[in-house]
Amino acid sequence: MRFREQDETKVMKVRSSLKSLKSRHRDCKLVRRKGRVYVINKTDPRFKAKQG
């Protein structure tokens, strides 16, 4: 199996608290969908995260 580099994979972080992640980038938005809380960022997708 080939080793994948970190930059190649876009992984969503699963965190217990998203308040700290919201302040990482100025375009980060907090969104609630289907009982879950997400941090989305259209300009830089590497800041994606979900809770729940």
Written account of the structure:
The protein is mostly beta strands and 52 residues long. The chain has one domain (13-51). Helix content is 8%, strand content 29%. The chain contains one helix and four strands, in the order βαβββ. The protein has one helix at 19-22; strands spanning 13-14, 29-33, 36-40, 49-51. Strands 1-4-3-2 form a four-stranded mixed sheet, with no helix packed on it. A hairpin with a 2-residue loop joins β2 and β3 (36-40). The chain is globular and about 25 Å long.
Question: What's this, in brief?
Answer:
With 52 residues, the protein is mainly beta. It has one helix at residues 19-22, and strands at residues 13-14, 29-33, 36-40, 49-51. The radius of gyration is 12 Å and the shape is globular.
Secondary structure tally, helices: 1
* Order of H and E elements: EHEEE
* Model regions low in confidence, pLDDT < 50 over at least 5 residues: none
Shape: globular
Strand fraction: 25-35%
Number of domains: 1
Radius of gyration: 12 Å
Q: Based on DSSP secondary structure assignment, what is the total number of beta strands?
A: 4
The strand line-up of the biggest sheet is: 1-4-3-2
Span between N and C termini? 31 Å
> Structural class of the helices, strands and pairings?
mainly beta
Major sheet = 4 strands, mixed
What is the typical, i.e. mean, pLDDT?
82
Helix content: under 10%
